[in-house]
What does this fold into?
Amino acid sequence: MPDKLTLRPFHSDDDYPRLADILTASQNADNLPATVSAADLAKNLRATPRFDLFRDLIIAEVDGQAVGFGRVRWWDEDSRRTYGLTGYILPGWRRKGIGWALLAWLETCAQAVAGEHPTTAPNFWHINATQYQIGLHALMRRAGYGIKESWALMVRPSLDDIPDTPLPEGLELRPALPEHFPAIWHAMEEAYVPEGGPPPTGEMPDDFKNDPNFQPELWQVAWEVSAGKVAGSVMTYINHAENKQLGIRRGYTEGISTTPAWQRRGVAKALIARSLKAQRAVGMTESAMVCNGEKLNNYKLYVSCGFQEVKRDTVYEKLMPD
It folds into this structure.
């Protein structure tokens, strides 16, 4: 570890340009092409829920030069609370013990935040590592973290040759209108109950509705005509900021769900085809999605729809002591 390594909190807006440079260099070193501006980083951090910029972010400096930073944010999941720890270090300063120092600070910070927001559910530290972050994988193993799950980024490199896949008889496609949001969300929640999801409420979170990627005009929603209920949906969106940054025209085929009564009947495949056509209609040339690496049936379905795995992330976690 560098002798003159110090850790300090965020001071002012003057920190944003250096943090943006660190984030850009770090992500590019990890095969995540990006150019992050100070303005974009400031906007993102200020909009992050359950995150205090002056408490939950730490900057690593060597001889007064910022060489890395990390942050903590938390969210609730079913029967647990998760504290996400994220860190970035300049490529030239890696493997010098700075990652250990950041991790120790982030874990301690998360414990302090947990003390301010007590819960009866267990608290977990949570860290995401891409397949290219070899050093981070090693750090996780040495720090006693275990693997929770993996996620595959899958891309359909062309929106040509999209098949005409019909919906099953008895279903029809309808636009996603605001008055239908509760029914659409309820059906999505219902789809995940067999996997351990919470009971459906139909209450779409405000964070979701306020996200710039909330684009219901692109959603594909199948309704069961006789019952007047949603049978499945694909919550298509376009990340315009990412496209501008990377110089691509990519849409996202995400939020794919089918209610239990309609699963394994071709609903998802038909809605995915319509989602791809909707993306093509607004000028996109490729599509992407993130797939849970442990759900092999879903993975095979997406491959059959033309998607190819390009990157896999591993989620590590560790139970936070009381």
Remarks:
- The longest helix spans residues 98-116.
- Residues 154 and 310 are 6 Å apart (CA to CA).
